[in-house]
Amino acid sequence: MALYLSNLGAAGIILSIAIMLASGFLLTRITKRLHLPNVTGYIIAGVIIGPWCLNLVPSQYIEQMDFVTDLALAFIAFGVGRYFKLSALKANGKNMVILTLFESLMAGVFITVSMLLLGLSLSFSLLLGAIGCATAPASTIMTIRQYKAKGPFIDTILQVVALDDAVALVAFSVCAAFVQASSGTGAVSISQVVIPVLLNIAALVMGAVSGIVLSRMINKRRSKDHSLVLACVTIMGVAGVCSSMNVSPLLACMASGTAYINASGNKHLFKQLNQFTPPLLVMFFVLSGMRLSIPSLAAAGTIGVIYFLVRIAGKYAGSTVGAAVIHASPEIRRYFGLALIPQAGVSIGLAVLGQRMLPAESGLMLSTIILSSGLLYEMVGPACSKIAIKLSGSIPDKEKCTKKEKKGDGGEMEETVSAQARHVVV
């Protein structure tokens, strides 16, 4: 099939996208019966149609679809920005920062120590630990959308996963500076450490400015269709500029969404985007599954397995201690760590930089561990997120929701239908 599609040119690309979307939908018919999140089905679908199973999509198409990842992360990050209203941050921003520092840095410490105990170099251990601090918000947010989860537990998740990558970037920069200073080879210049940090700062500023500009362009006289067009131009423009600078669009687009919600106070645009993005997000997760390399998993071996397990333990322990420090609710203390397991996006970008700072063999091992474990986290993470959300009591009771919808007016019913559409659940 892959060979046949590769000979069709543009038609083959269109058919490949159709296969990706169809396989994602069909696998959710199975995961739904097993009471698993849709995201898990999407990723499994990608593994099945990928090059190591049925090989339905040409490998060259898979390699050329990096833009799907950047776009999906961009739209997700912009949506996360709505939860960073200044009024809310003033109320509990300090606690969110403390909780994020504990869950993020403790995972990094756990990983670094475990790698050192295995006899690996300090440079490798520090870089892997710093990368392990990051959390991928995409699958967690998709799971939240699917089950219409709401409440303090969900608000805490959304704020922490948004701050998490910022902490990972700072931690990696510090560790990279140490690795560079202790290296006697001189292969890596200080600019390779400083420039990425400066570029991320510039991207944050650009994202914030774009959000303010967007809030000025969208007003009551602007039609919904054109508002959506302007939002897509802004998000894609920020993501495109970030990609051209080899910077993850995550932080910049999050800053754009944050600036927009604080400048306009209008949440309707975010609802429109949630209706627009489901096919893109399905492609993103199916693509992640297709990139799972079986040989890479075998090459990572024991070190990869230990990294996979230790990071989970570190995230859980860090979130538990952090929640205790800020006197968080029992639900956050017990279940919050389960929602922080997924890892991809920013961690993959950091792995590429880290690979250049290490000897060839160590660098390849680091990159392999992050790429392969990241895909495994994306398979296990959504199920763990669902468990955490359910145990925290954040999933509304179906009977209560039905009664509330029946009592509501037409506007409320319309919003409910829109919500169902964006959850990609049929």
Automatic annotation (TrEMBL):
This is Cation/H+ exchanger transmembrane domain-containing protein. Gene3D superfamilies: 1.20.1530.20. The chain crosses the membrane at residues 6-27, 39-61, 67-84, 96-118, 124-144, 156-181, 193-215, 227-260, 280-310, 335-354. GO terms for cellular component: membrane. InterPro entries: Cation/H_exchanger_TM, Na+/solute_symporter_sf. Keywords: Membrane, Transmembrane, Transmembrane helix. PANTHER family: CATION_H+ EXCHANGER DOMAIN-CONTAINING PROTEIN (PTHR43021:SF2), NA(+)/H(+) ANTIPORTER-RELATED (PTHR43021). Residues 26-370 form the Cation/H+ exchanger transmembrane domain. It holds the Pfam family Na_H_Exchanger. It is a multi-pass membrane protein. The keyword tRNA-binding does not apply. It comes from the Bacteria. It comes from [Clostridium] citroniae WAL-19142. One of its GO terms (molecular function) is antiporter activity. It is found in: Membrane. GO terms for biological process: proton transmembrane transport. The lineage of its organism: Bacteria, Bacillati, Bacillota, Clostridia, Lachnospirales.
